[in-house]
Amino acid sequence: MSNSLSTPITIAARGQAHSVEGQAQARDGIVVNMTYLNGYRHGKGIVIVRNEKDPWKSYADVGGEQVWNDVLNAAMEYGLTPLSFTDSLFTSVGGTLVNAGVGAQVFKFGPQIANVHELHVITGKGDLVTCSKKKNSKLFYASLGGLGQFGIIARATIALGPASTKVKWLHLLYSDFSAFSKDQEYLISFNRKNDNAFDSVIGFLMINQWLNLLNFFPTQEIPRINSLIAQHGIIYVLELGKYYDNTTQDQIDQEVEHLTSGLKFVPTFKYVQDVSYQNFQNRLETVRSPAEPQSWLNLFVPGSKISYINEGVFKNILFKQNLTAHGVIVVYPMNHTKWNNKMSVAIPDEEIFYLVSVVQSASPNLLKAVDDQENQILDFCKISNIKIKQYLPRNKTYEEWIEHFGSKWQNFEDRKNEFDPKRILAPGQRIFN
């Protein structure tokens, strides 16, 4: 056991390899390939338990190595679904839970870490600990959003709810960022489980080279959309999803019309289609280019400063530089009240904050330009005192990590000393080493 050695060997867990800048690596140490763990469970990597009296009390017992898309497919066989998804379902359960797991349902159900009942965690001491809100709660809350610093998530119990089979999938185009952000914030104000509201709220940008989202629109509409982009430079796309099934399909069109009636999108640029629930949850896979290296920059931005990001980042960096990389720019708001402050993840201290995600696929000769651009974005945020929190953070110094966690830092350090005192786990994050 590494913890018992006079010179411990560092250990990193590697799920689906979506981490950035070597965070899932351990120089001169051991990398645990989590995908192999399923072979030791006799094919029981995912166990679905449906509560027939109240489907909202159902759950999935899954290995940390499992991919969210497989969890979804297994749950759907019982008429169930996870409540909150990331923007990519081809990430591992353990990988998203040590970060947060954010997506278009966060405004209603919170991040994925808010929908966990129990964890099995292997700590830096080598202990296998079962933990929850009531049992070994300190390790439970530390591990959720803890960047793998306290233990490897071997298994998790995930909340499930009743699944729909179909989705009304909407795209509304905006030329004005203020109208776009205000409409998003209005829509996420209906954030209780039983609210008659949209089930999915997310936003995108379309600027010149960043046209992957055109796949979402009818072919005959593309010339008209391109003309709108040429006229304004940047178009903001509000994407909405409203779930339904055979029992609710008669009134779904009327509900969608009512929910969008007061929104300030560009007239006649509203597109509605019907898709299956599973295809909807996997829609973003069609706009990524897995064949090329990918660069991810993810920021949590205080809601009061999101207009600064529009002017300083969207317009003056991404639009002006216009790199020929391919990818997607995501922007959408979340409610602070849907996050549990006991968890390790650092978020802005405002009731409304945004995820701004710039995901770029670039040929090797463009990687330096993309990296330089991302550093410019971070420098702009620092100079402008926007007080962002990086999601999937990649800070390089001890002082930057202290600043990142802010008021949570002392708890974070204390938990490290308790559960991984010899600094064995997740060295690629470069927090304590």
UniProtKB/TrEMBL annotation:
The keyword Flavoprotein applies. Residues 1-163 form the FAD-binding PCMH-type domain. Its EC number is 1.5.99.12. GO terms for molecular function: cytokinin dehydrogenase activity. Its cofactor is FAD. Keywords: FAD, Flavoprotein, Oxidoreductase. It catalyses: N(6)-dimethylallyladenine + A + H2O = 3-methyl-2-butenal + adenine + AH2. It is an enzyme of class 1 (oxidoreductase). Pfam families: Cytokin-bind, FAD_binding_4. Belongs to the oxygen-dependent FAD-linked oxidoreductase family. This is cytokinin dehydrogenase. It comes from Stylosanthes scabra.
